[in-house]
């Protein structure tokens, strides 16, 4: 945008163009910032799922799954750290709704995880990967981005199907590695889309 | 007859500030400065004018040890912005 000038006389068309330009610039800046968060959580999910898979595989003990609780412990301070460098970028309706979708995802997954620990009745990986794909798909719909919508659908439906076919729960963890990579790619797509 | 354009909004910088604030819940001074590519002095004057008209509220506080000014559009500001855009569209059509 050109240097704004308080006293410049504007025509109606110029005023509308200015509103459009400013809104677009601000929207891009806000949504581009969202991309960082997808990348951060994606990297964390990839690293943790691979780590837990390896530890479970080597020791044969599923207790390593408790390491999933390290995700918010590491992730939330990191989110705060990167947010501090964002030059106070505010949230708009879309970014706020996307945050709420992922917050709901976290609440669902934590609840299912805890219920599963005590009852062992739920096919945990299947449900979590389905929810992950669903949250990804909803984010894509909000951002009006077809690659994100499709990758969310493939991750959710394909992942749930793969989870049902995989013989051991340890192997099912690799689905979350794929999920993490998809989150990273989603973050990169958002950063490019709103460059 | 064309409706009268709100003179307070018919200024490039004030309109830019109102456009940003119409989209977000609140925005810090530094964000508005960056998005509008304006100088701190000019932006501060225009924010005071919008605030005096009741279109925005300005809250001064601290972020850590740094002073932080946060602006928020008021319901009157939203109404004025809507009326301004409606009037602009009538001019064009």
Would you write up a description of this structure?
The complex is a heterodimer of chains A (195) and B (93). By secondary structure, chain A is an all-alpha fold. Chain A has one domain (26-193). Chain A has six helices and no strands. The longest helix of chain A has 48 residues, at 12-59. Chain B has 93 residues and is α+β, with helices and mostly antiparallel strands. Chain B has a single domain, classed as Orthogonal Bundle (Arc Repressor Mutant, subunit A). Chain B contains four helices and three strands, in the order αβααββα. Chain B has a three-stranded antiparallel beta sheet. The relative contact order of chain B is 0.22. The model of chain B has no long low-confidence stretch (mean pLDDT 91). Classes of the chains: A mainly alpha (195), B alpha+beta (93). The A-B interface holds A 1-8, 10, 12-13, 15-16, 18-19, 22-23, 25-27, 29-30, 87-93, 96 and B 5, 10-16, 19-20, 22-28, 30-31, 34-38, 42, 45-46, 63, 68, 84-85, 88-89, 91-92.
Beginning-to-end CA distance, first to last residue of chain B: 12 Å
Q: Number of folding domains of chain B? A: 1
Q: Gyration radius of chain A, to the nearest Å?
A: 20 Å
Give the structural class of chain B.
Answer: alpha+beta
How many helix segments of chain A? 6
Secondary-structure element series of chain B: HEHHEEH
Main sheet: strands, sense, barrel of chain A? none
Poorly predicted parts of chain A? none
Mean pLDDT of chain B, rounded to whole units?
A: 91
Order of helices and strands of chain A: HHHHHH
Quaternary form: heterodimer
Helix fraction of chain A by DSSP (H/I, runs of at least 4): over 70%
Given the structure, what is the number of helices of chain B? 4
Beta-strand proportion of chain B: 15-25%
> CA-to-CA gap between the ends of chain A?
15 Å
Please outline the major beta sheet of chain B: 3 strands, antiparallel
How are strands sequenced across the largest beta sheet of chain B? 1-3-2
Number of strand segments of chain A: 0
């Amino acid at each position: 945008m050109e240097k704004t000038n308080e006293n410049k006389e504007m025509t109606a068309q110029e005023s509308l163009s200015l509103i459009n330009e400013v809104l677009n610039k601000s929207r891009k800046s806000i949504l581009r910032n969202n991309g960082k968060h997808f990348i951060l959580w994606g990297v964390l999910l990839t690293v943790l799922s691979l780590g837990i898979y390896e530890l479970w595989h080597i020791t044969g003990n599923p207790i390593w799954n408790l390491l999933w609780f390290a995700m918010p412990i590491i992730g939330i301070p990191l989110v705060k750290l990167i947010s501090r460098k964002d030059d106070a970028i505010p949230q708009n309706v879309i970014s706020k709704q996307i945050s709420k979708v992922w917050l709901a995802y976290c609440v669902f997954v934590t609840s299912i995880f805890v219920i599963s620990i005590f009852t062992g009745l739920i096919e945990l990986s299947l449900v979590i990967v389905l929810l992950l794909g669903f949250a990804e798909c909803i984010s894509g719909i909000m951002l009006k981005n077809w690659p994100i919508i499709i990758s969310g659908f493939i991750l959710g439906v394909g992942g749930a199907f793969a989870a049902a076919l995989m013989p051991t729960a340890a192997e099912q963890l690799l689905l979350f590695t794929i999920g993490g990579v998809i989150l990273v790619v989603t973050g990169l797509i958002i950063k490019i889309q709103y460059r | 007859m064309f409706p009268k354009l709100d003179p307070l909004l018919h200024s490039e910088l004030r309109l830019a500030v109102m456009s940003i604030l119409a989209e977000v819940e609140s925005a810090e001074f530094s964000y508005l400065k960056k998005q509008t590519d304006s100088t701190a002095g000019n932006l501060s004057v225009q924010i005071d004018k919008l605030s005096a008209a009741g279109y925005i509220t300005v809250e001064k506080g601290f972020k850590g040890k740094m002073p932080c000014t946060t602006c928020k559009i008021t319901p009157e500001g939203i109404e004025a912005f809507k009326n301004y855009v409606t009037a602009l569209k009538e001019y064009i059509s």
